[in-house]
Structure formats: structure tokens, C-alpha cells
Amino acid sequence: MHKVIIISGSPRKDGNTMDLLHIAAEEIKQAGCDAEVISLAGKEIKGCIACPNCCANQGRCILDDGANEIFDKIAHADGLIIGAPVYFGTARGDIMNFVQRLGMYSARHDGFLKGMVGGPVVVGRRGGHTATIQELLMFSFICGMTVCGSNYWNIVYGRNKGDALQDEEGVATIRQFARNVADTIKKTR
Fold first, then answer.
1. pLDDT of residue 58
2. Domain range list for the chain
3. Cα distances (angstroms) measured from residue 186 to each of 92, 130, 131
4. 108 near 54, Cβ under 8 Å?
5. CA–CA distance, 27 with 12 (Å, rounded to integer)
6. Which pairing describes strands 79-87 and 34-39: parallel, antiparallel, or unpaired?
7. Largest CA distance in the chain
8. Among 11, 59, 74, 135, which is most buried by a count of CB atoms within 10 Å?
9. Which residues contact 115 (CB under 8 A, 6 or more apart)?
10. pTM above 0.90, yes or no
11. pLDDT confidence of 51, banded at 50, 70, 90?
12. CB 28 within 8 A of CB 178
């Protein structure tokens, strides 16, 4: 069965980002694919040090912070969705640490992200959504991913826990995006 890995870059295991990513996972499952949501909450994801040892270190990143196990899951998946809350107008540092290391790891391991289907989901209070989605889109494009759209950009408004679920248009956009990811995977993989 086709599988989509969904990464939450939120420091909260039960906040707005996770609410949206669980909705995406439900849609993907209803569309006939499997989905696994992985939270980076509680992990201290270090930034890539561009050491190129991920090739020489038995195929593992030398930074031992739990990212290797997640990279392995992504490498064996058909899709990747990255969810990020907006903090001070941009993506949180740890999610960017994660995606930059993932990109380097993929580049040094046969470019497994190339052709992978997915894209970003962004949630924030008021502003910075487009800057954050652009950061994550740039990552997706440089890695050669097939990025799916929706009926609007994959942005949702919300500050306090549960607020994002009140953004009906945003939630509908995420639902459509998730269905598009699953449908594209089934058509191309």
C-alpha cells in the first residue's frame, strides 16, 4: 500500500498543526493510501553541519538526535507532507533544521525525495504564512518533489489550540490537498 509520511514541526503534540495534519492523514487514508503522522515535539533537531559523513557513516547522519529513524521512514514512503507553524513570520528553526538535513541526506542517498509526492501545510495567527510556505516549497522543489496544490494555498489561520479548526476555508483546503496527494500517488507510483 502507498504511504505518506506527515511531519509536524510544531513543539506542541496536540496543537493546531497536529489537528490539521491528522485531518490530512484521515483524508489520505479515505483515499486509499496509508499515512503516518510524526511529531518533532520534544526532539532537539540539530542543523546540518555539511560534513558529508552521511555517506561514510554506514549511511547515517552523524548527528544522533532521532532524525535518522524518520529519514528511513521517509525514504521508504511515496509521499511527504511537512506541517509548520509560523513563528515571528517564518518557519520555526527546528523544522528548517529537519528539512535541510533531510535534503542533504536524500541527496547523498540516491535522491529518494525526487518524485516523492507531497508539499507543505502552514498554520499561524496572522502573518508569515506565505514566507513559510515559500521556504518549504523551495525545499520541495530543489529536492525534485512533485508538489500538489489544492483549491487555495495550504495555509490555515489560528493562534490558540483549536482555532485552526474554526478556519473552515483553511480546513477545506487541507482536505483537498491531502486528497490530491493520495490521488497523485496512486496515478504516478
1. 65
2. 3-182
3. 32, 29, 30
4. yes
5. 22
6. unpaired
7. 48
8. 74
9. 144, 145, 146, 188
10. yes
11. confident
12. yes
29's grid cell: 487514508
CB-count burial class (<10 Å; 0-12, 13-18, 19+) for 82: buried
Using CA of residue 61, residue 65, residue 66, residue 71, what is the dihedral sign? negative
For 7-29, how does the pLDDT look when each residue is reduced to its tens digit (9 = 90+)? 999 999 999 999 999 999 999 99
Q: What's the CA gap between 126 and 12, in Å, rounded?
A: 19
For the domain 3-182, what is the CATH code? 3.40.50.360
Gap between the Cα atoms of 72 and 75, Å rounded: 5
Strands (DSSP E) found in 40-175: 79-87, 90-91, 117-124, 146-147, 155-157
Cβ–Cβ < 8 Å for 172, 150: no
For the chain, the residue count is: 189
The answer for residues whose C-beta is within 8 angstroms of residue 30's C-beta and 6 or more apart is none
pLDDT of residue 30: 98
